[in-house]
Amino acid sequence: MPKLIEIFQIDAFTAEPFTGNSAAVVLNDFLSENEMKSIAAEMNLSETAFLSHSNEAGFNLRWFTPKNEVNLCGHATIASIHFLFEKNLIEENSHITFKTKSGIINAGISANKYWMQLPKISFEKITAELTDIFSAFGINSSQVNREIFVGTNKYLFIGVDNLQTLFNLEIDFNKLSKIISSQNKFCDIAIYTLQTLEDDSLAHLRFFAPAEGIFEDPVTGSAAGPLLLLLYQQNLIKNFSDDRIYKMEQGDILNRKGRIGVSYNHKSDVLKIHGNAVTILKGNLII
């Protein structure tokens, strides 16, 4: 007999439908891993989140791209909190924990925004020549105006001179995929600029994860959070304040405008991302 699986599709890091980054969310204790993979492939979104009840946290949480399972996903976590709130399983101004492949993650709702704490991360400066990477993005070294770092999350962070450079990338995804698969230093790439569309934003970024089956991710909390920390460590944030929510821009080039709130407390070493979300679809899968 077919099973009915309730599923929501939720746009995260936005309050407007059809913008931000879309994730599917399922709450089910009985799905096999193969069923999760099949559902994620069928939904064909950047990520599908699978919640289940847990004895070690509020819920278990797993994230799948159409290609494979990933260790961390910001927008699908924000979408999952929104899902639980809409299902009346958590309340406003509440705290919740998720057991994930990245450990226990703290999250919650505060001041009408969803938030999650990101795992600790550190950075290493890249000194090797990256001409091939630049070529794959259609840029040259004169347009790269920041030191380049790789995080322990295996994200490579490349800073460019302005929005024009960022928006006019000419990406050779075949070449990029070959470069990524030929080494194990980094898996995904964030390219950013400190020039922004809105005066109160800190940076604008784009994110590429072809190894995960995501050529370009519309809005990426797991990159925006570490970017704030990286900029803080380089003293590139004027009048930095602990726990202030800074705004990161992403998705405009894809007509999926999203805005990610990011905060950091240097005393407690706590990095968080914050955002809105809106449900655009509710239904059932028949499997």
TrEMBL record:
First and last residue of the signal peptide: none
GO CC terms, sorted: cytoplasm
GO molecular function terms listed in the Swiss-Prot or TrEMBL record: isomerase activity
Entry annotation: catalytic residues: 47
Pfam families: PhzC-PhzF
Listed PANTHER family: PHENAZINE BIOSYNTHESIS PROTEIN
Protein name: Putative PhzC/PhzF-like epimerase
Source organism per UniProt: Ignavibacterium album (strain DSM 19864 / JCM 16511 / NBRC 101810 / Mat9-16)
